[in-house]
């Protein structure tokens, strides 16, 4: 690993220019307001900002804080209430982790430091450093994809070289200021989003253009991933005015209510769709001791972050009520009160139309 020793003169200029730029260009975000400089607000915003853009997060954050303005009120939140607020933002495991973490905080007070914070569900290196930097001005390196991009470009690091991550960490740590790290790390986040953008960095407007060695060839391009195609079946099973629902165990839709579903299987080669569907349908039928006719006329399409799903809908009307081990009967009119995903709403749109 190459050890980057950065000269003091460079560091001073770098930090000064970035902080000066921030004082003039800082984004006005709700969690940055003075009254919101508390652990609770920073924690919620940092968890929401993982994998979600600032623009999307703002209304969710505002709704969340309106419902639970502080940690004490949040202690009373149920998992379903949190999931209902989270509906549509995706990566629902974050909501579950918030719930688990606040249950821990409700029982015992913890020290708000780097190591203790990391013991809470959903808090890793990045979130714990961001909280400590923003809240206590601690000089810990805060490294997320934004900071990685700026460091990689500035030092012209080659993306396919081994030790890239270690080198970035080493440089980011060297550049972290002893004071004002809260502003500094937020400045880098803004710089990465407003100036050093992924596609076309606006180098002419950049405060560190003289320090930067970017030659346009160190793009952190993510190789174009082959987008997978998957298929699956969902069951709209009705008895009188009730329908069968399950709590999803899927990581993407964790704990949200949905209609019973088979697992999703790859169908990249456009294989015999009906044959595959019958196969997974038969398995599901066997496990749940239920029989139905394979009529695959209705389907919806939905795109997750890493695959396209074609989900077929089988409607079954039961003449007598049957109990299922992993599912629960819910009155049709109560479905709206259950936390559910965009996918579930699409299915509802198809079966209720
Ligand atoms: S000079 Fe350009 S590439 Fe370098 S940090 Fe600034 S915007 Fe990014």
Question: Can you walk me through this structure?
Answer:
This protein has 13 helices and seven strands. It is of the alpha+beta class and 353 residues long. The chain has two domains: 198 residues, Endonuclease III, domain 1 (Orthogonal Bundle), CATH 1.10.340.30; 125 residues, Nucleoside Triphosphate Pyrophosphohydrolase. The longest helix is centred in the first third of the chain and has 18 residues. The protein is elongated. The mean pLDDT is 91. The site of iron/sulfur cluster has 12 residues, from helix 9.
List strands and helices in order, with pairings:
Layout: H1 8-25, H2 39-49, H3 54-67, H4 71-74, H5 79-86, H6 93-107, H7 114-117, H8 125-136, H9 145-154, H10 164-175, H11 181-194, E1 228-239, E2 242-247, E3 257-258, E4 265-266, H12 273-287, E5 298-303, E6 307-317, E7 328-331, H13 342-352
Parallel strand pairs: 1-6
Antiparallel strand pairs: 1-2, 1-4, 2-3, 2-7, 5-6
Helix pairs in contact: 1-11, 2-3, 2-8, 5-6, 8-11, 9-10, 9-11
Bound molecules: iron/sulfur cluster.
Residues 150, 153-154, 195-196, 201, 203, 206, 208-209, 212, 214 line the site of iron/sulfur cluster.
Task: Please sum up the structure shown.
The protein has 353 residues and is α+β, with helices and mostly antiparallel strands. The protein has helices at residues 8-25, 39-49, 54-67, 71-74, 79-86, 93-107, 114-117, 125-136, 145-154, 164-175, 181-194, 273-287, 342-352; strands at 228-239, 242-247, 257-258, 265-266, 298-303, 307-317, 328-331. Helix content is 42%, strand content 12%.
Overall radius of gyration: 25 Å
CATH superfamily of the largest domain: Hypothetical protein, domain 2
The level of helicity is 40-55%
Largest sheet: 7 strands, mixed
User: What average pLDDT do the residues reach?
Assistant: 91
**Which residues form runs of ≥5 with pLDDT under 50?**
none
Count of the separate structural domains? 2
Helix count from the secondary structure assignment: 13
